Amino acid sequence: MSKSYTVAVVGATGAVGTQMIQMLELSTLPIKEVILLASKRSAGQTRTFRGEELTIQELVAESFSGVDLALFSAGGGISKQFAPEAVKHGAVVVDNTSFFRMDPTVPLVVPEVNAHALSAHQGIIANPNCSTIQMMVALEPIRQQVGLKRIIVSTYQAVSGAGARAIEELKIQAQSYLNEEPVDQWQTEILPSGGDKKHYPIAFNALPQIDVFTDNDYTYEEMKMVNETKKIMEDDTIQVVATCVRIPVVQGHSESVYIETDVPADVADIRQWLTNAPGVVLQDDPSQQLYPQAIFSADQTETFVGRIRKDLDVANGLHLWVVSDNLLKGAAANSVQIAEALHEMDLVRVP
Amino acid sequence: MSKSYTVAVVGATGAVGTQMIQMLELSTLPIKEVILLASKRSAGQTRTFRGEELTIQELVAESFSGVDLALFSAGGGISKQFAPEAVKHGAVVVDNTSFFRMDPTVPLVVPEVNAHALSAHQGIIANPNCSTIQMMVALEPIRQQVGLKRIIVSTYQAVSGAGARAIEELKIQAQSYLNEEPVDQWQTEILPSGGDKKHYPIAFNALPQIDVFTDNDYTYEEMKMVNETKKIMEDDTIQVVATCVRIPVVQGHSESVYIETDVPADVADIRQWLTNAPGVVLQDDPSQQLYPQAIFSADQTETFVGRIRKDLDVANGLHLWVVSDNLLKGAAANSVQIAEALHEMDLVRVP
Q: What positions does the domain Semialdehyde dehydrogenase NAD-binding occupy (chains A, B) (predicted)?
């Protein structure tokens, strides 16, 4: 494995792209060269990678000539158009958008859970949705021991999942509130979903809509959690349902997760399994008021789990509180971990 | 019913007490006189009631002489000490603290659900916990039609539930964040629970602890929702479990509620039942992005319900999003509604 890779980052100026560059800096992946790609508008800007100043180039099909690995996070439309181009040029694509996730020929991977699925890749690997990834990291160690029948999750999601402009909007609204400006005069242009018709305040509010609604009155975000869980865990029989809510947090998604396992499990055992699990940090001691908190998960790559307790009535029912930085394990860190797993499994090549 | 009452407000300067005075101003209750009581520290301050300036008096046992109705919201310790004194002096007490709620001789009342329980009062009536009340208002109309087996609720609770100082702390922390002060230098003295050992930031965070922890690793807030639901609905067989979370919202608790009914119900029917239900405002039209939002529930006395949808797997499973102003329907408005019901049922007397 004396290979060394040319790695392209597509969407290098975005909230996730910025984190991808940082994650690559920290990565064990042998990197020969990093190429930063973005829209024409951002071309010419510079970013630093391991002390070297790199100029951002405009994304075109030819950008992928000589690229071994391309990490995409520039929206589904860009992935749809350019990921196949990258593959044609011989690059393996790790795509952070939802565009290819449910394509049966595309592995959908959380390395701690289903790295084995990478073996079947045909050039494109999809990175799951942020809210799905952290739930998978927390639940897989439990599922391996006692199975998993059912998940009911309510999320508390950070605005950074909606991009840099949403963060800015939250800050502007928070200042408006502190200035005692009436809420109907706040700037509200982005949330709950940039592409939807109406926009609502997020500062000092909770919005039970992430992404747009589907025909069954669930949102796309909710259905992503449902469908991606089944694909990643390779089990269509798991019952999954979600309520996805945006709250005024900048970084770090929190999740209130109820599960039913095949066999009842003791809390002490679950704590032990999670202590030993890859990518998990157990923070669970009510006597010390120790539990995961979004604000302290920021800039961490792990998934934090606490508030583990038995259901009060159902013997195989359990409740957990799961927190992770949505831009890192939820996006950039998971994408780079997929790239590292591809390298370790000698799969950085288009079949 | 040509009676007219002398009404005492105990804890008149607090977040809830302030709202109680406003709710009494708007009330249909025939009021002869209002007496405002608080600690020695607040005595001498004035408040306006229907254009009249009232001086706050120090709370002592003799304060209740000539009082017909006393609304308490000054902490459990004050209720423990002074509610029996009020009753001795002939006043009927509506207590907003948790102190008497699970006392089998004390009715625990949400007027829309179990006003009939008032008939058995022996001088003290308890107002349920804020997070319980709004859930009861939303679920009772459904339970009456198709029964109720099970509730799993995750809450998104406002800081005003922790009092005026918690609101101030949120604002100070929000400004600290906007000033880019490091989080370890923020003022954190109140939340998650004033009486607990450790305090954490709430601005741009989510805290999965409200009140202190009990021996079973649930918090008191969570166990209140469990035990109070069974008492109010007069059914110990209902399975209830809660995860209670504080989020950076000033007014308005939101709840992600999953229920299983005895008999499956159509969403269209549920919408109709809730449209006709007392105290409920249906806000449920995904095509118009219409759903309840905490920030718009502020200063409203109703409970707002939306995001109603069938579970994806369980035929009798349903999900709802329930929002209400925690200081109003969750506290002051419900207390005054209890007083109004007592008047209408001719029960404003100590038996």
A: 6-121
Supply the pLDDT for residue B282: 98
Do A113 and A202 share a structural domain? no
- How large a percentage of chain B has pLDDT more than 90? 98
Please indicate if any CB of chain A lies within 8 Å of the CB of B220: no
Confirm or deny that B104 is annotated as ligand binding.
Answer: no
Domain with A101 in it:
5-127+331-344
Q: Is B245 on the interface with A (CB under 8 A)?
A: yes
A350 in a structural domain: no
> Distance (Å) from the C-alpha of residue A302 to the closest C-alpha of chain B?
17
Q: Do A178 and B171 touch (CB under 8 A)?
A: yes
B157 and B306 inside one domain: yes
> Does residue A200 form part of some domain?
yes
B234 and B153, same structural domain? yes
Q: Is residue A351 included in any domain, yes or no?
A: no
Lookup: tokens for B339: 């007083």
Instruction: Please state the ipTM of this predicted complex.
Output: 0.97
Supply the CATH number for residue A78's domain: 3.40.50.720
Res. B3 pLDDT band, cuts 50 70 90: confident
Q: Report yes or no on A65 lying in a domain.
A: yes
Tens-place pLDDT, residues B193-223: 988 999 999 999 999 999 999 999 999 999 9
CB contact under 8 A, A205 and B293: yes
The pLDDT tens digits of the residues spanning A323-339 come to: 999 999 999 999 999 99
- What share of chain A in percent tops pLDDT 70? 99
A42 is in an annotated binding site: yes
Please answer whether residues A68 and A5 qualify as being in contact, where contact means their C-beta atoms are separated by less than 8 angstroms.
yes
Residue B323 reports pLDDT greater than 80: yes
Task: Give yes or no: residues A33 and A96 share one domain.
Answer: yes
Interface-testing mutation among B181, B256, B285, with chain A (most A C-beta atoms within 10 A): B256
Q: What is the radius of gyration, based on Cα positions, of chain B?
A: 20
Q: CB–CB of A218/A198 below 8 Å?
A: no
Which are the catalytic amino acids of A? 130, 253
Q: How far is CA A161 from CA A328, B213, B292, in A?
A: 11, 32, 22
Could you tell me the CATH number of the domain that includes residue A290?
3.30.360.10
pLDDT at B69: 98
Q: How far is CA B93 from CA A308, B24, B62, B78, B97, in A?
A: 39, 15, 15, 13, 11
- Based on the domain organization, do A151 and A279 belong to the same domain? yes
Does A157 appear as a known binding residue? yes
Q: Are residues A159 and A95 in the same domain?
A: no
| DSSP for B194-218, written as a single string | TTSS-----TT--BS-SS-B-TTSS
Domain count, chain B: 2
In chain B, DSSP finds a helix count (H) and a strand count (E) of 9, 14
pLDDT digits (tens, 9 = 90+) for B4-35: 999 999 999 999 999 999 999 999 999 999 99
* pLDDT band at residue A1 using 50, 70 and 90 as cut-offs: very low
Average per-residue pLDDT for chain A? 97
Model confidence at A3: pLDDT above 90: no
**One domain, residues B233 and B93:** no
> Per-residue confidence at A2, pLDDT binned at 50, 70, 90?
low
For residues B143 and B224, state if they share a domain.
yes
Token code pair at residue B3: 């009676």
